[in-house]
Amino acid sequence: MTSQLKDVILTIDEGTSGTRAATVSADGDVSCLEYLPLEVDTPRPGVVEQDANAILDKTVAACRATIAQASQAGLRIVAMAIATQRATAVLWDKNTGRALVPAMVWQDTRYVGELNKLAPVWDSILAKQVGRAGGVRSPYLWAARHIRETAEVAQAFAEKRLGFGTIDTWLLWHLTLDRVYVTTPTNATSAGAYILAEHRYQRDWLDALAFPQELLPELRSDADDLGRTNADVLGIDVPILASMGDQHAGAIGLGCLDRGQAMCIHGTGSFVDLIIGSEQPAKAGLFAGTTTMVARRRNNQSQFAVETFAATTGSALDWVCEKLHWFGNATEISRLAAEVQSSGGVTFIPALTGLRTPDMQPNARASLTGISMASTRPEVAYAILEGIAHSVASCLESDRDVSGVDIAELIVGGGLSASDPLLQMQADLIGVPIRRKPNTARATLRGAAYLAGSRGLFWDDIPRSTAFAAEEQVFEPKMQADMRNERRALWHARIKSELDHANVFAAHETDR
């Protein structure tokens, strides 16, 4: 007698720093996990790039390793789901299938000057329709510049063999048998030309960027029939039933689905999303760095979130440890921070690629101030974590003010959420409970699979995750309101000083 195979969904979590593949079953169990790291290149200030070919190759390798594990474990893969970093863009040759130039990563700010010139005409329009102003980066402007300035890209475009898309499009085109050329709303909103209320591109804005619209991937839903896998590439033939941005998949996997629930994923940056439901925010465009996103689109209906992020929090810790060698690793920073009650007046602003909140200022930079002869390593460690906690608090304040939705709780995930001192600082500075659920590193994988299985494969709706219920931990605010207000006021003053300095620098560069 043979045992019955257990049905699972093969899920990809393709992030900025690495690619994961795993299987997810109907009970939420994540197994057969494989991980391969990715490199990010910053050849000059403002330019952030990755090798798209390496992203693809490592994604395929991770999937094949997971598939082999699943076979040995008696698991039957019945579908695939994909979660990806969102606004990272690729240009490729459809004949060879290989990328023609390095991918532009979502942290890139090289075209901020050109976007600023368009801002007076376009920002108010975009904020209302697309959910974000022109901002500091645009995949469409990046592609248009390469078509104009890079001979190999220009030739591929002229010969109608140029492909363009964010990482979801890049992977779907390669992994599907029929070379499906699509994108989904949770990715398209980050790219900056998707009209939220109408599920279509803002084509006038694309014209203003000189982007050739024949390159646009077809818009689909995040939960959709997105083709079948190419068995020659992956070794399996199954339907792809979901593709979405990694942040939004993480929200589903963490059970952050309802209006008033907020989520912070601490990865390369710290992304803060507040779920607001089916209505768009009351004050869209109030802050340039606070954007309206599609949280998920399913059955032709969109749910929205308001999102703000601090771009370099996890990467700031990596920088402090790996480049400056001040600490061995992030764990040591947390251990030392727990030894003291304050930073002793030391302040750290984790703005290695600029500030987004309260103002969008790419010329702002990270800083460590308030150091005296009496300052200690534990106080510096405390200041580094407190800077991240303040950044998250500022993000939530902006999300609340733009949406008009009160925050009931903050659910946290990602690597830095393992730090108890950081989460207690966040609770104290925000004034709401912080809910940490175990195994959050797998939330993105679980969330994408939940969406893929929510249209009848495993469930009739997105399931409420019970995978974390047993051991979740809640950090309640301990700081008195007057002390919280004082600490936040000092932080706002420090940020204003940095913004003033950055604005003077920007004006000086403009005059040169």
TrEMBL record:
Top-level taxon of the source organism: Bacteria
InterPro entries linked: ATPase_NBD, Carb_kinase_FGGY, Carb_kinase_FGGY_CS, FGGY_C, FGGY_N
Record's keyword annotation contains Cytoplasm: no
Keywords: ATP-binding, Kinase, Nucleotide-binding, Transferase
Domain Carbohydrate kinase FGGY N-terminal, chain residue ranges per copy: 8-253
Listed GO MF terms: kinase activity
A Pfam family recorded for this sequence: FGGY_N
Residues in Carbohydrate kinase FGGY C-terminal domain copies: 262-453
Family, per entry: Belongs to the FGGY kinase family.
UniProt protein name: ATP:glycerol 3-phosphotransferase
Organism taxonomic ancestry: Bacteria, Pseudomonadati, Pseudomonadota, Alphaproteobacteria, Hyphomicrobiales
